[in-house]
């Protein structure tokens, strides 16, 4: 597998250990231009570690990452963000002294250089739309730090979208989020994707994955075991086996 002109993010032979624990073995995958790629796997399989390395928050022990042909592995989070990659966290923290609305608004201003480096997107009433779509209207005037875990998730996705990244990495964007809001999140993410934002999405909700992702890669114990369309996941013996021993409900490869 080697990168082509269609490759936006090229991850090759990533490895990482914590002490004696080899968490990532030899992880390679591509994110193509315009693509929404799911990154799946049971709890502890290394998904967040991959996002942490890709976004520059964690060093790799080996391997390379190219963003648009530029090496970014171990470049540090500021340089990776400046290159156009923005990520959300599995457990987002929010500022105490800013309201929810201020945080959504600031998403753009604080990343002015990033915004100008990427294709300008202009949605009318974007702040209002994101606040309404993610049902943050009733809490828009409250300190962002006072939100529930699910609401912080929604807010972090809204802020990340306002940054207009080339690549958006989302770590379990629907965890703790009310099920009624998931379809709305798919709609919003697809809208930004149509404007050119490629995405790498860690998620357990299979309905969300099927609605959102063009393709999925599956991690198990730090190794990529599948690369397929979302509709094929539950027919893939290696994927089902990776989740065995954990609950494999219809529609949810959760752990
Ligand atoms: N900073 C760290 N120090 C030690 N072990 C870690 C650290 N981060 C992750 N791990 C371990 O790496 C493995 C993969 O973790 P993680 O990438 O968070 O998995 P996932 O996101 O797929 O649930 C787990 O066994 C976890 O305990
Ligand atoms: Mg994780």
How helical, in percent, are the residues? 25-40%
Q: Give the distance, in angstroms, between the N- and C-terminal Cα atoms.
A: 30 Å
Largest sheet: 6 strands, mixed
| Distinct bound molecules | adenosine-5'-diphosphate, magnesium ion
- CATH class label: Alpha Beta
Please tell me what the overall shape is. Answer: globular
- How are strands sequenced across the largest beta sheet? 6-7-8-3-9-10
Order of helices and strands: EEEHEEHEHHHHEHEHEEH
Query: How many discrete structural domains?
Result: 1
Average pLDDT metric:
88
Class per helix and strand makeup: alpha/beta
Helix segment count? 9
Radius of gyration, whole Å: 18 Å
Q: What is the chains' assembly state?
A: single chain
Number-wise, the strands total 10
CATH architecture: 3-Layer(aba) Sandwich
Poorly predicted regions are none
Relative strand content: 15-25%
Overview of the molecule:
The chain is an alpha/beta fold and 255 residues long. The protein has a single domain, classed as P-loop containing nucleotide triphosphate hydrolases (Rossmann fold), CATH 3.40.50.300. It has a 6-stranded mixed beta sheet with strand order 6-7-8-3-9-10, sandwiched between helices. It has a 4-stranded antiparallel beta sheet with strand order 2-1-4-5, with helices on one face. Helix 7 links the parallel strand 7 and strand 8. Helix 3 packs parallel to helix 6. The two termini are 30 Å apart. Bound molecules: adenosine-5'-diphosphate (ADP) and magnesium ion (MG). Adenosine-5'-diphosphate binds next to helix 1.
């Amino acid at each position: 597998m080697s990168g082509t002109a269609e490759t936006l993010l090229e991850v090759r032979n990533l490895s990482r250990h914590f002490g004696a624990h080899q968490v990532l073995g030899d992880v390679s995958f591509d994110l193509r231009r315009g693509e929404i790629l799911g990154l799946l796997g049971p709890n502890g399989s290394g998904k967040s570690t991959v996002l942490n390395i890709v976004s520059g928050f964690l060093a790799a022990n080996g391997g390379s990452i190219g963003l648009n042909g530029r090496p970014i592995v171990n470049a540090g989070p500021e340089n990776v963000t400046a290159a156009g990659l923005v990520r959300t966290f599995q457990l987002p923290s929010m500022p105490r002294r800013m309201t929810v609305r201020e945080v959504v608004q600031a998403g753009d201003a604080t990343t002015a250089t990033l915004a100008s480096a990427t294709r300008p997107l202009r949605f009318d009433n974007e702040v209002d739309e994101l606040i309404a779509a993610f049902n943050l209207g009733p809490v828009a005037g409250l300190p962002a730090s006072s939100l529930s875990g699910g609401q912080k998730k929604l807010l972090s996705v809204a802020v990340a979208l306002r940054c207009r990244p080339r690549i958006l990495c989302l770590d379990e964007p629907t965890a703790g989020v009310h099920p009624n809001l998931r379809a709305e999140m798919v709609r919003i993410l697809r809208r930004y994707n149509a404007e050119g934002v490629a995405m790498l999405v860690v998620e357990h909700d299979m309905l969300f994955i099927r609605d959102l992702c063009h393709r999925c890669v599956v991690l198990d114990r730090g190794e990529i075991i599948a690369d397929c369309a979302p509709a094929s996941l539950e027919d893939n013996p290696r994927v089902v086996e990776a989740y065995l021993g954990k609950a494999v409900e219809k529609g949810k490869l959760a752990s």
